[in-house]
Design a protein that fits this description.
Mean pLDDT: 88
Distance between the termini: 22 Å
Strand order of the largest sheet: 1-28-25-24
Shape: globular
Number of domains: 2
Oligomer: single chain
Radius of gyration: 21 Å
Low-confidence stretches: 1-22, 321-327
Length: 408
């Protein structure tokens, strides 16, 4: 089974476009003021970002709310959610209002109550209003807004099993409706714990998470108008749960999460060509269970759980995409490609002072790093397994060029 999955990854990567690279960069911003936590909930509303709930290092759950002002890079505590402490809740923005619901009241186990209450936050009045309860109690569900409505997808249900249900919320009539079930893979029930969702071009993109038995990396397009699912190219990293996803410049971005270990990769998905492109490694600690939101055209992601415990740091992801960016890979040449022997050459023709060469495996893990000291530099691949890798040229944390290379 594992061998077949690896073979599938190999041929999938051979079909990816070598262009489509953009200038991406993670930058650290002000940390969340009220301590470390994971499985908190992020949403944006009226030009600000918000983080609520979650569980800290000492297994304390929260119901607080914090507002992030990107213009001044600071957090302000707002009025608490007038309901249970919780983790793993879902949230989204509709009509400049924030919405939050679901989650579980227990910080560590299946002994707590899975919730189905649903609340609207008004950022102008700084008030919460109870709304129609969701028909299903669920936590670690994916949530997203699309075409003026909110969607809650899969998660862990009241029976503590992975759910496949999709519900739609209409804020105008304050009503939920069951839409469909997530089909999932043929080998699973369709239920999915800890998947992610984001929207682009009036459609929803959903994937990853854990099904009955395995971490998954599948990626799907859901059309709310036709109520139909279409499987797309798999997320190129490892199968995982607790990842992040948001959309910048009309492009879904996803990464991080846990596949048993913690990941720090970041990818963007081209909805037109159905291809994935590597952006950059996250500059902080690899983690899962993060909170994220988008302000303007900048994505924000932070908190979460890493190998060192719960986190409170926060970062922003900028994507400055233009036609000129698609030409920058022409400055990078790799030869021979495929590589049969123990060496290959990296040639970078743009003037530079200090750059770094990174070699990344298919799951986004760095397997080799060295400084680029010459316009033409030899790389020793001794000890690396056969397969497809990414060669990344970085200026500090910013990717300036990337191409794939095949080691035979």
């Amino acid at each position: 089974m594992i061998k077949n999955l690896k073979t599938g990854f190999f041929f999938f990567f051979l079909s990816l476009s070598l262009c489509g690279y953009s200038s991406w960069k993670w930058t650290k911003v002000h940390a969340l003021d009220n301590g470390k936590r994971y499985e908190s909930t992020g949403f944006s509303a009226n030009g600000k970002g918000y983080v609520s709930c979650g569980v800290d290092t000492n297994n304390n759950c929260y119901n607080d709310l914090w507002e992030y002002d990107a213009a001044f890079d600071y957090w302000t505590q707002k009025v608490n959610l007038p309901a249970n402490y919780r983790r793993g809740a879902y949230g989204f923005e509709l009509n400049n209002q924030g919405y939050l619901g679901g989650g579980t009241s227990d910080p560590t186990s299946t002994l707590g109550t899975i919730l189905n209450d649903f609340w609207m936050y008004d950022p102008i009045l700084n008030t919460w209003t109870a709304k129609a309860v969701c028909p299903t109690a669920v936590y670690r569900a994916a949530s997203v807004n699309c075409n003026g409505k909110g969607y809650v997808m899969c998660g862990v249900s009241g029976s503590w099993g992975a759910s496949s249900d999709v519900y739609e919320y209409n804020p105008i009539i304050n009503s939920w409706v069951f839409k469909t079930t997530f089909p999932g893979l043929a080998s699973s029930s369709g239920g999915r714990d800890g998947g992610v969702a984001t929207s682009a071009n009036n459609k929803i993109y959903f994937g990853m998470g854990k099904d009955d038995s395995f971490f998954q990396n599948d990626w799907w397009e859901y059309n709310p108008t036709t109520n139909a699912w279409l499987q797309k190219s798999n997320f190129p990293g490892s199968g995982r749960t607790g990842a992040f996803a948001f959309t910048l410049n009309g492009m879904p971005c996803a990464g991080m999460g846990s596949d048993g270990s913690y990941n720090n990769d970041t990818w963007w998905y081209n909805t037109t060509t159905n291809t994935w492109n590597y952006t950059t490694s996250f500059s902080g600690a690899a983690r899962r269970g993060v909170a994220c939101f988008v302000i303007g055209n900048v994505g924000y992601m932070g908190t979460g759980k890493s190998g060192g415990g719960s986190k409170q740091d926060f970062y922003k992801l900028d994507a400055d995409v233009g036609i000129e960016d698609l030409e920058k890979n022409s400055y990078l040449t790799l030869y021979p490609n495929p590589v049969i022997g123990n060496e290959f050459t990296v040639q970078y023709t743009q003037p530079f002072n200090t750059l770094t060469i990174k070699l990344l495996s298919l799951d986004g893990k760095t397997v080799q790093t060295q400084e680029l000291t010459n316009a033409s530099q030899t790389i020793d691949r001794t000890g690396l397994s056969k397969g497809v890798y990414f060669v990344i040229i970085q200026n500090k944390q910013q990717v300036v060029a990337t191409k794939k290379i095949i080691l035979l």
